[in-house]
Structures are given as C-alpha cells and as structure tokens.
Amino acid sequence: MSEAALPLNDRGLAYGDGVFETVLVRDGTPRLWDAHLARLTRGCERLGFPAPQRDELDQLPARAPAGLSVLKLIVTRGSGGRGYLAPADPEPRLLVQHLPFAPAEARWREGVRVRHCALRLGIQPRLAGLKHLNRLENVLARGEWSDPDVAEGLLCDSDGQIIEATCMNLFWQRNGRLETPRLDRCGVAGTLRQALLDERSIAEVEAMPARLEQAEALWLGNSLQGLWPVTRLDDSDGHALITWTIGETHRRLQNDAQRLLGYPSLT
C-alpha cells in the first residue's frame, strides 16, 4: 500500500469503494490526528479491506507546507474484482494530497445563515458515521442553492429526522442542554464532533427539524472550520424561520472548538 496515482479501474473511482479524511495541519503538526486515523481505520474495516499502516500515515503530516494546510487522505479498495464483486485479496490504494488552507474567520465572528434542504438522506446503518467516498447525496443537496449569503444546508433522513449539514455536523442548545443528532443510521460522525462529545456533556438525540426553532443557540462545525454560530435559519424556499443574536452561549462551545483546532479564542 503506497501513495499512487488513480487508474481508471480503481474501485474508488468506479463505485465509491473507499474512505477519506481531511486533516487540519499547522506547520507539520496535525490536529485531532488520532481521531482521524481511528475513523479511517474503522471505515476500512467496515468496508472489508485493510487500512494503511499507522507508521506509514504518521510520516505524512510532516510533508505539509509551512503554515496552515489540509492533508487529504483517500483509501480505496484498489483495482480488481468483477463488477460489484470485490476482489478476494484486495490491494488498497492510498492517495495523498496537501492543500493550502485558510478558515472562514468572518463566519466565526459574524455567524452564518443556513437553510433546510429538500433532499433526504438514505438510512443505511452499515455506513453510518463513516466518511466514505459515496457523497452524491451531499453533492445534490449542495446544488439546491446558489445564494452566497447562505453558508450551508441542513439535511434530514428519509424519516424526517435532522442529521447534519452538507459538510458539517450540527449542534444546538435547547432549555440549557447541548444536543447533537444521533448518527447511528446515517450521516458522518465528525472528528471535531467526537472531540466535543468527549469533553462536554452533549446529548445525542433523535429530533425533527422543528426542534431547532426551539433552540437558544445553533452551531455548525467540522475539523477544518471549527464552529460557526448560526444567526438565521431558512426553510428550503429561502424564507426565514428563526434568527439568533450571537452571545456568550455561542462563544463558550465555539471556543472549545477553537482550542481543539489551535485557533484563537473569540469574545
């Protein structure tokens, strides 16, 4: 298993048969590294092929350019097999990319406007939580809006329960309690989400989207951008449902995320 170009018969290209990670790296030091590698390994195991060796992966962040960057890791099952039938002895392929990165700092400070999406996520517990290569639902959902003032779209599953945003996890505070959607049937279990769950008392819940309109505060977050406080939530037609003013409640959880990712605290 090694870094390689992607041939046309790769199963990741043909079928989305693989997993990926996007890791924040600062001057060669990765953030939430153990969590990223744990999820990568878990994804490979659940799909049924071996994960890259830890010592091989541990060498990659040091190759990043100086400053802030993103290390993208893609692991596919490799080539072979017949149609959907996977090869009995797969030879996984690891692809590595280093990209310059700058977070959207204005969104930390000013917050964001988000909307509900019409698309519904399919329920598939065997893939729930994984960052697998089958991301067509997210692509279609992101195509539902072009307004640059809308930062993200929120997704429900086919039963109507709120799950996540197109590329971020979702958190809210309701009646003083922090909550996040349960992700045992679909959705991506983010590494920042897990780090916050490990540090804070955050309940994993099943909730319909109307629950968000009862929240004192709402955030979106991932391991690259940190947490964005939400200041306005729209329906799927662009009509405002509720607005929030950023306050101390928003900043407390947001600053936990800032610290975990090595970003400055906010006031």
UniProtKB/TrEMBL annotation:
Signal peptide: none annotated. InterPro entries: Aminodeoxychorismate_lyase_IV, Aminotrans_IV, Aminotransferase-like, BCAT-like_C, BCAT-like_N, Class-IV_PLP-Dep_Aminotrnsfr. Pathway: Cofactor biosynthesis; tetrahydrofolate biosynthesis; 4-aminobenzoate from chorismate: step 2/2. It comes from Onishia taeanensis. GO terms for cellular component: cytosol. Pfam families: Aminotran_4. One of its GO terms (biological process) is folic acid biosynthetic process. Coiled coil: none annotated. Its EC number is 4.1.3.38. This is Aminodeoxychorismate lyase. One of its GO terms (molecular function) is 4-amino-4-deoxychorismate lyase activity. The keyword Transmembrane helix does not apply. Belongs to the class-IV pyridoxal-phosphate-dependent aminotransferase family.
